[in-house]
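User: Could you write out the 3D structure of this protein bound to magnesium ion? I've included everything you need below.
Assistant: Certainly. Input first, then the structure.
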Amino acid sequence: MWGELKQATVLFADIVSSTEQIADLDAEQAMERLGPALALMCESIEAFGGTVVRTMGDGVMALFGVPKALEGHALLACEAALDMQQAFPGGTHGLRIRVGLHSGQVASDPRNADGRGGGAHGLTIHLASRVVSLADPGGICMSESCYGLVRSLCDARPMGSHSLKGISGQYGVYALEGLKTGSQGFHQATLTPFLGRDREIALLQQALHFTEHGKARVVDISGEPGAGKSRLCHEFAQWCRARQIPVYEVRAQPYGHATPLQPGLSLLRTFFFRIPPTDDAAAARARIAARMSELGPPAEPDLVLLYEFLGVAPAESLHAASSPKARHARLLNIVRELLKHDAATTSVILIEDLHWLDEASEEFIATLIDAASGSRTMVVLNYRPSYHLPWAQAENAQKIELGQLSDKETEHLVRTLIGPRQEFQDVCQLVVRRSGGNPFFAEELVRSLSDSGLLAEGSDLRIAGLDALERALPATVQAVIGARLDRLGEPEKTLLQMCAIIGKEIPLAVLEHMASPLASVIEKGLNGLCHAQLILPQPAVGGRRFTFRHPLIQEVAYSTQLKVRRGPLHCAVALAMEVYYRDQLDEYAGLIAYHYEAAGQLLDAASHAARAAQWVGATNSALAIKHWHKVRALLQNQPRSTASDSLRVRAGGQISVLGWREGLTLQEVQPFIDEATELAGEVDSRSIQLLLMGEGRMLQASGGPADEYVERLQKALSLMDADADPGRAATINAALSQAYAWAGMLEQALAANDIALRDMGAIDRFDREWIGFSIEHWVMGMRGRLLMRLGRLEDAAQCLQELLGRGESSNDPVILQFAHFGYIDLAWCRQNAELAHEHYAYVAEIAAKHENPYLRVFALSCRATVASIDRDFETAARTFSEALTLVRHAKVAMEFETEILASLAECHRGLGNSEQALDIAQEAIEISRQRSTRLPECRALITRASAMLDAFGSARADQAQALFAEAERLIRLTGAAIYQESLFREQSRLAVLTDLPGHTGISVGQAA
Ligand SMILES: Nc1ncnc2c1ncn2[C@@H]1O[C@H](COP(=O)(O)OP(=O)(O)O)[C@@H](O)[C@H]1O
Ligand SMILES: [Mg+2]
């Protein structure tokens, strides 16, 4: 047996001025005087399902909801308190008692249960003992949290706010005055709109139609707690009343056996004898007699029987002579006769919550249903699926099984409750998912959110909201589900708790591993749980498995277990999963990490989180970054070891390696890089080379100079012996090829690319995992683009073709894009529209599949390039501008910014917007200079000069000439033969305009 956490109501009761009461008595007399009083208190407590945990000479402490969870624990405690008060009417010589009630979480530890409350712990108990001291003599005082649970069921008077000794904050307290009489139904004004249930309403209406024609129906409605049984009945009842058809409602109460036959009595009063609550005993007797005389002259014993039964017998009357059994039989007969007599008028009897029905009432209701057949009295019953009707289903019965609301309906409901604010979209979805279509759960989840102030104007949901909601487990929901779980026997309960630790999905093999001592009873236990509708078997693929029937069942079964117990169980799950998922460890690493974390084994958790991060890696960089941050967080306060330091180096490194995909800036990732570099210095200095690489890449992706990226890599190379470590040298050279390419130093880039390509085979797994995507693809893709810019289009085409052939096998979208991106470039060089369109289709498809800002920039520039090849400069300009906005806004793919600007300037020139072309080209030139991106600079120089000729002709020939000269110099420096042709063309135009000699006729071949 293990301790558990429960929602409970604590009751303290004591005798007022007990010291004075026994002042003149010796100890034995005192016992004789107070003892019976305490016994009476205990009787009331036990009658309503409470557990007396301690008696204290002049008082008692009791718990409702511990050790077994009790739905309606607060209401039952109120009833017990009221019942107790009735036993102590006070007066001059009588004793008087005070009662205090408080609800909240209680930890119960059955190992410590000593019968004196030693097994129950928590602030809730301390608070309750203070609440009782606020009660008036003869009064019942309840705290705000207790009141909140019974508000709609009780009459209470506010007693203001009080600070309670030893506890911070103010507590509102209320005086309990009594239970509300009459219908406990819904209050129209506070109801949410009624959703769905069209079929059910139609069925009920049809049943009424038959009833009106003398073929009365019985409708049984079954459904989980909170599914909406009462609401459905309420809506139907409203509809009937609107048509002048009277509806009589009664309901069974939890702990019905404390007040047996209550539903039957209530029906007799309201339905059969129409006695209003205001009638006194004499008036009630008169009504009973009058009604009975409708059946013929009433027999005196029948009247006595009814008077007694309904509690309105005159004080002096004699007890009816017959046996209880005979009297009961007679009573049922009277019911039959009355129903038959009323056969002409249509009415509806609604009996709620049959699952709580006491035995005596069962017979009464069975008789009622039987007698109603052939009358015009329709009976509607509702109960939970766990209840089995104790009578054979009548011929005229119809069954409604009330399922969950659809997602759409639930969403509508949640929206109504939380209001239309757009930022609540996620909250709304989360509530819909967690409530699983149960409207009561949905309402309670929203209420607990709202109680914690999260839905208030101005509260920041992004920080606390979703997380809090994920954890919020309303007390009411806990009590409803908890009571269900506590009705389970063993081994079901222990198994269910283990299932809850395992998670939403429960592979049988994992459960078996954890529950090995229960091996012989697992099968039976699981059957029991399925039968109780708590879990569901899943279609067996790769081993039998189960899921929870409702997400909240898992959460309650989980959260009611003490942390000290959960830890070791989580550890057992982690170990079992490592075995069970041994062939899919990557996929399940995140889940296993979660279990290790919950078990408090943080290093194991971190290494599995790292595995999960590595696995999602490039496919979902945002998630991977999240996992890496998790790794860091897990290790934060761990004692240092080589294993943990190395993991931290990797985590920092990976955040920087993945950062550019998600638009992180160097500034944001620098602290992680620095931390990793410092640790690497101690445990793994080789990693510093890779950290430098990551830093350089981030620097350039955040708009830093490409030349500095080159420098970082050269520094990395200087830290190693390339001959001794050719694999690592290949890795760094791959990056160097990229860095040089962005810097426009094409020959150097190609040389680095050659080295990377040559020694690729030597790159080890560590480096491959660090990079996270195929280095081969990367190197080949860059090579294609380099060759193109060098003017070697045939070689480039060949390179791309090879890349395309391999690309299919990659799952990294950026890598998949590479070949197509290259082809679009090639199409641009060749002005081949068909080729461009063909490859753009792929690019668009890949980008659409992945929500990633980097890919989006990529895709936009491709689309714009394709439009420019089509000479649709308007679309091209618009799309480039869009890409530019995204780059600047999201700070992602900033290395493309100057390229985009240069292209945009060209488009404007194509559109004849010389002025814009001039401005944008100028901007491209300036930014390119800051970032040492020489190729876009070169393009922009040519465009600016040409735009000048367009706009001003020979008037600005000198300026244009200077720009061309600068472009020429850059072509010579970079080797970018690809821009030579347009330079020639424009220079010739200038020559014609000014009548000067044409271009100087250099070519890249001579440039070196
Ligand atoms: N079809 C529905 N549309 C909107 N709200 C509903 C619907 N069904 C139930 N509810 C709300 O959900 C809550 C629980 O419903 P209730 O009828 O008390 O459940 P049950 O009687 O099955 O335990 C109530 O607040 C009710 O108003
Ligand atoms: Mg109900």
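Residues 233 and 350 are 8 Å apart (CA to CA).
User: Perfect, thank you.
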